[in-house]
Amino acid sequence: MGASLVVASNRGPVQFTGDSDETAVPRRGGGGLVTAIGPALADGGGVWIAASMSDADRRVAASRPMLTVVLPEGRIRLRLLSPAQEVYDAFYNEIGNRVLWPLNHCLFDLARGPAFDGAFRAAWKHFRTVNEGYAAACADAAATNAEVFVHDYHLALAPSALRRSRPDLKIAHYTHCPWPDPHYFAVLPTGRELIEGMLGADLLGFEVPRWAANFLRCCAALGHQVDSAAVLAPDGRRVQVRSYPLGVDATQLRRAAAAPAVAAGRRRLSSMSGDAVVVVRVDRLEPSKNILRGLRAFQELLTRRPELRGRIVHWVLAYESRQQVPEYQRYAGDLHSAVAEINARFGDSRWTPVRLATDDDYPRSLAALSLADMIVVNPLWDGQNMVAKEGPVINEKDAPLLLSRNAGAADDLAAGALMVNPFDTAELADAMAAALDMTAEERAERAALVREAAVRAPPREWFGQQRRDLAEAAGLQASTVHR
Ligand SMILES: O=P(O)(O)OC[C@H]1O[C@@H](O)[C@H](O)[C@@H](O)[C@@H]1O
């Protein structure tokens, strides 16, 4: 029997480790997606379709085309797709990580790259093939009239491929990262195909209205008819375009922060920080997070306020990701050099101003956020940024939040956070100084505003609203067709 709910994403809810299928162990990934959609998938007889991302995943997929994983959210049926390695590399590393991610975050070094040459076109073909493979897997798994939720830029072409084979389905696509304006989007030679791929859906979701509005402007620039919340697809359907800002599940997060491993992390971090003021940031180690400018601002603070030396510590928890991408490797190298330079210039035998850790240690991240005196979140661009929402919810010191205006989270948190232009290191240094000088009353007031806004639309509600809107959008479509 087909599934009434199908979810498709590149990264699935678990990744396997182990040397053989018999010994393979699933490890739950981070991220809010599984928290948001896991319960609905488990309750409603759904299927999650994802890519094999490790050798162990591929072995498991080869022997078990459909498997069941047991998670706190329930038992979830999972289908892992394993395209040929070179096809998957082109899809994920070349197009996903080196073209679409930098496009959406305006990260291209336009004077030198990207090279949209024959190699790009060959990689794009593979990108299309993987998307078609996903569409075929969704078509295979879905019951008549089922709901299909397709996630993110990796799978932008899947909605139209799926619609061609299964016009009965209700299809949604959600973009978890920003969307650039038409001027920047026009850099991509295959932009029309990408957008028309997404227009196969009935409902397109974005994190905040800014990204949805940019998407609509890109559609208009390509000649599609748009209004403030919909686009006319080439086949005459009205595709709804909406935003769904994700919030924090406070109960679940506080439970995670109360775990013994987090308490142990707090003891370690406290003993290493002593009485110093603790400035914390937690990010994936990658260029859009703007970690280098954050360090420059911290350096400026130490230069402006020599009395802070020996009395402040900056914890930079930047866990490695996508290290196969050359731009990420270079960025990681620059980060290590910047930290070494600041520590050599300002530190001494008793004081290390910047502590950098690059391993992925979730309990330590929660520990650091809970005991921070100041939280820095300054991405160049970010779809939402959940650290900006999670940090303040578990912080115990009313730590001021320093937040980039270009993070989607700014829409919800601006009233309580200290807002900064992420390109302006002097402004970030000013905000750090302001955070240090802030009265206890102002800290408490701002922290309360941030906490209250951060827990609006927790993951289950976020997904529930999308399901209701998809039903409505697909219903409108049906009535249009019958008229
Ligand atoms: O490449 P990875 O490690 O699977 O990360 C991808 C995800 O990274 C997240 O940070 C983004 O918000 C998502 O948009 C994206 O899908």
UniProtKB/TrEMBL annotation:
Pfam families: Glyco_transf_20. SUPFAM superfamilies: UDP-Glycosyltransferase/glycogen phosphorylase. GO terms for biological process: trehalose biosynthetic process. It comes from the Bacteria. InterPro entries: Glyco_trans_20. GO terms for molecular function: alpha,alpha-trehalose-phosphate synthase (UDP-forming) activity. PANTHER family: BCDNA.GH08860 (PTHR10788:SF106), TREHALOSE-6-PHOSPHATE SYNTHASE (PTHR10788). Belongs to the glycosyltransferase 20 family. This is Trehalose-6-phosphate synthase. It comes from Actinomadura rubrisoli.
